[in-house]
Amino acid sequence: MPRSNHYTGVADDSDAPAVQPVQAGMLLVNLGTPTAPTAAAVRPYLAEFLADPRVIDYPRWRWWPILHGVILRLRPKRSAHAYTRIWDERGSPLRYGSEALAAGLQAELDKQQPGTLRVALAMRYGEPSVAHAIEQLQREGVRRLLVLPLYPQYSATSTGSVIDAVADAFKRLRWPPELRFINDYHDDPGHIGALATSIERWRAAHGSGEKLLLSFHGIPERYVALGDPYAEQCRRTAQLLRERLRLGEDQLLVSFQSRVGRERWLQPYTDATVRRLAAEGVRRLDVACPGFAVDCLETLEEIAMQNRDFFTAAGGETLRYIPALNDAAEQVASLAALVRRHLGGWPEAAA
Ligand SMILES: C=CC1=C(C)c2cc3[nH]c(cc4nc(cc5[nH]c(cc1n2)c(C)c5CCC(=O)O)C(CCC(=O)O)=C4C)c(C)c3C=C
Ligand SMILES: [Fe+2]
Ligand SMILES: [Fe+2]
Question: Which end of the chain is more exposed for a tag (fewer CB within 10 A), N or C?
């Protein structure tokens, strides 16, 4: 006999005994990824992503015919091919990497204070949706919710869109939980320390290239002109890392990747930068992507494969990609500390 949840009215038809309610919850949110590396699976994913007005802000009457008439006919096939290059027996790296990070964070927080904070994972596009994850947390008795989008730098196109999804989910709840948001952690000393440690460890094991390029996901320049703090936060992260790693301006460079469409995006572009460096005589280039908490298509395919090929075709010898923090102990520890700090004043979950 299905029990009806008294907060949401959502039927809960599991026969599992009610567990001890954990009153504080946190939701990690990442971008989302297709369910399979096929055009048929990539199409609905791109349709949801590219219909988000936070991502593409053209008026609907202008954008819809282009999206449905051109983009969704051509891009799914091309993207699916890129996804086949990074897909493995565990599925999409963005998905299993995010799941591993969520599990690591739950274990770390439980070690500090058993059973006080429930960690859930949602995807902004696709499943598990933000609304679904919040309903599930409420069913488990969560009355206070902390949301951590897995984007160290705030952008309206990424973090802002997660805020929209949470707001939409809350509209459907009769008694939503108390809510907090971590809008960004681009200059969090624990996070910068985790990045620096992981880059130093990687370079100690593999040797250092002549230069280190930090490649961030781009956004249209127009969004920055309209007040998006993203570019400034990327540059700040890079500056703090440069200081921690004791590198000069000529040894640590910044660029922006993953441009889509015809508008001008943040400069300099990553592809142009790796070609320029090769042409200038750089033989061995290391690239890290500190804007990505977890490895994904944009790091494993675009950087570690496409841009590696651009670099060698332009005369470079090796481009080596330094992996994202993923579920490494440093990232688990720095995010656990960040989360604990944001729980201050919530009696059942404070450190
Ligand atoms: C078209 C506009 C896009 C904006 C603006 C944008 C901003 C943005 N994206 C990320 C993080 C990720 N993006 C990923 C893939 C991806 N991004 C876009 C477009 C925009 N992103 C597309 C169309 C795609 C899909 C793949 C493709 O067809 O090329 C991913 C990886 C997803 C995966 O499955 O692995 C991430 C992560 C940020 C942080 C951001 C703004 C700062
Ligand atoms: Fe993107
Ligand atoms: Fe891309």
Answer: N
